[in-house]
Amino acid sequence: MSMVRRLVALLLLADGLITVVWGPGFLRWQRRWMPRWYRPVLDGLLRWPEWLLRLGAALEAGLGWWLWKRSA
Hints:
Blueprint: H1 2-22, H2 24-31, H3 39-46, H4 50-71
Helix pairs in contact: 1-4, 2-3
């Protein structure tokens, strides 16, 4: 179970940091590789103002960091 938790934490941390740095461009790039059922989620996120998107991504990265430290 600890490996699964660490993997989820790493994915949250990486996705959040990349989105903070790259911004909406990362979501547009990510949209090409996601399954069709997930694309409306990314389209909804792309409608957010950029500052709010980056803030949400920073919170996602923070959650990933917290989960990583907690699982160690």
